[in-house]
Design brief:
By secondary structure, this protein is an alpha+beta fold. It is built from 6 helices and 6 strands. It is globular and about 45 Å long.
């Protein structure tokens, strides 16, 4: 099995299927709509989300949260694999020298934690190759488990563009 195949199989792991359900359920509960058309079959929904054309990622609840999910679009944009992505502190998605963006991101995450979600967030991020990108129309929401306990934050984005080149994705 090659590296690309390994990366594509992560959505099939039971813990990823469970996390995907929490991501989708929390989004629906907080925003009153679905992130994607659900099938009521958790493995099938996990596959649909992993291969969706928009970015979806999430982090846990540590003091310095670690990314714990990234769909194929996110992994492609960050130019990395699942193993590397899911060990990265989420703060590292912002260039360390961009103090203003780090502060803005921290404020946004605090607002999300207090209000449940935020729509139309935009910001500057950096991928694993040092390429800067602008994300727009991002939704960030709290994730809750089956007992309604806070367990992380998710984000989805349909529009982004690289700032150091003319390459655009959507």
């Amino acid at each position: 099995m090659n590296k690309d195949q390994n990366m594509q199989d992560y959505w099939q792991k039971p813990e990823v299927i469970k996390w995907t359900k929490l991501l989708l359920d929390s989004y629906e509960h907080l925003l009153g709509m679905s992130l994607l058309e659900r099938t009521k079959d958790s493995p099938q929904d996990a596959q649909k989300l992993f291969f969706s054309p928009f970015i979806v990622l999430s982090h846990d609840t540590q003091a310095s949260p670690i990314l714990n999910y990234g769909n194929q679009a996110a992994l492609n944009l960050w130019e990395t694999d699942w193993e590397t992505f899911t060990k990265m502190p989420s703060r590292q998605t912002v260039a360390p020298e961009n103090i203003q963006e780090q502060v803005t991101r921290s404020r946004m995450l605090k607002i999300v934690q207090e209000q449940g979600y935020i729509n139309n967030y935009e910001g500057i991020r950096i991928n694993s190759q040092g390429k800067l990108l602008k994300i727009t129309e991002m939704t960030v929401w709290n994730i809750f488990d089956e007992n309604n306990s806070y367990c992380g934050q998710g984000a989805s984005c349909v529009k982004w563009s690289f700032l150091r080149s003319n390459t655009k994705s959507a």
